[in-house]
């Protein structure tokens, strides 16, 4: 596809008129129209500005094969993950996990993942399935995976969660009401998590899941910030996990997944 074709497609996907895009760029709408008709190509500075205005990479504008591949926002159906986790909870006799599945589904009802129509419950269910796939069937870990966002995002309190005190403690560590605030707040948040291997494990699984979805859920600015935050803080969480005998294999897999995705994003950005 040409630059003009890519530009028009990306503009229309964002429901922007040529006039609206031209205002963002400080150019005439006739210039945008000419670019889209491939009458002439925007110079390098304009390409960078266009990429920023449309929240895409420059390569997304100039790539001739743009749109060649079809992408998916959800790999697994959340209803299937729910059934899988409830079956796992029954088989391994995990009462907290069994209660947490339905509680999380109800608490997150109506919520969507950023910039998508994917039900938010897909995210906590994915975390718990990720843990099970690594051979982790600890009731506190799985139930905390499922409930890790309900206090922060659903107006619930730790006291009302239908799980053990250990699971509540983990959820409390993972909860940061009002965002992470200053860099000092962020540092204190991660250092507290680092003291708890189970909280560290869940936070790393959470980061892996968010890294896999940030290409369509985050702005370019947020992606840059997320990469920097991951490199700054997740090494110490992985060290905590690696130092916990039963999580040694999980530490390797999580590190590999995070570092692989970070490298891919860096190359594409």
Write a structural description:
With 269 residues, the protein is mainly α. The protein folds into two domains: 60 residues, Orthogonal Bundle (434 Repressor (Amino-terminal Domain)), CATH 1.10.260; 191 residues, Hypothetical protein af1432 (Orthogonal Bundle). Helices cover 68% and strands 0% of the residues. It has 15 helices and no strands. Helix 12 packs parallel to helix 14. The protein is elongated, with a radius of gyration of 21 Å. The model has no long low-confidence stretch (mean pLDDT 92).
Keywords, please?
15 helices; Hypothetical protein af1432; 434 Repressor (Amino-terminal Domain); elongated; 2 domains; mainly alpha; 269 residues; 68% helix
Summarize the structure.
The chain is mostly helical and 269 residues long.
SSE diagram, text form:
Blueprint: H1 3-13, H2 18-25, H3 29-36, H4 44-54, H5 58-62, H6 78-91, H7 95-107, H8 122-133, H9 139-147, H10 150-154, H11 165-174, H12 183-194, H13 197-217, H14 220-242, H15 248-268
Helix pairs in contact: 2-3, 6-7, 6-8, 7-9, 8-9, 8-13, 9-11, 9-13, 12-14, 13-14, 13-15, 14-15
Order of H and E elements = HHHHHHHHHHHHHHH
Specify the CATH architecture of the largest domain: Orthogonal Bundle
- Find the CATH superfamily of the largest domain: Hypothetical protein af1432
The largest sheet is: none
How many individual helices? 15
Estimated share of beta-strand residues: under 5%
CATH topology of the largest domain: Hypothetical protein af1432
Residues in helices, as a percent range: 55-70%
Overall pLDDT metric: 92
The CATH C-level name of the largest domain is Mainly Alpha
Cα shape: elongated
Number of domains: 2
Euclidean distance between termini CA atoms? 20 Å
- Radius of gyration in whole Å, from Cα? 21 Å
> Structural class, from helix and strand content?
mainly alpha
Number of strands: 0
Low-confidence stretches: none
């Amino acid at each position: 596809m040409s630059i003009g074709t890519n530009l028009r497609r990306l503009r229309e996907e964002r429901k922007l008129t040529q006039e609206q895009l031209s205002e963002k760029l400080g150019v005439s709408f006739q210039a945008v129209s000419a670019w889209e008709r491939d009458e002439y190509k925007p110079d390098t500075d304009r390409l960078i500005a266009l990429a920023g205005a449309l929240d895409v990479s420059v390569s997304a504008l100039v790539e001739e094969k743009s749109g060649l591949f079809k992408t998916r926002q959800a790999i697994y159906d959340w209803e299937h993950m729910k059934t899988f986790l409830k079956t796992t909870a029954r088989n391994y006799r995990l009462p907290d996990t069994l209660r947490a599945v339905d509680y999380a589904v109800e608490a997150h009802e109506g919520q969507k993942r950023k910039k998508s129509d994917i039900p938010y419950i897909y995210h906590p269910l994915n975390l718990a399935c990720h843990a099970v796939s690594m051979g982790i069937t600890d009731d506190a870990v799985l139930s905390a995976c499922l409930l890790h966002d309900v206090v922060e995002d659903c107006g619930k309190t730790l006291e009302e969660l239908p799980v053990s005190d250990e699971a509540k403690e983990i959820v409390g560590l993972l909860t940061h009401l009002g965002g992470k605030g200053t860099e000092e707040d962020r540092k204190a948040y991660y250092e507290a998590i680092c003291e708890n291997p189970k909280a560290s494990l869940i936070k790393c699984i959470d980061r892996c899941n968010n890294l896999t979805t940030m290409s369509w859920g985050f702005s370019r600015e947020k992606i840059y910030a997320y990469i920097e935050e991951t490199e700054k803080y997740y090494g110490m969480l992985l060290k905590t996990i690696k130092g916990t005998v039963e999580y040694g294999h999980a530490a390797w897999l999580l590190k590999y997944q995070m570092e692989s995705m970070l490298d891919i994003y860096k190359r594409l950005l």
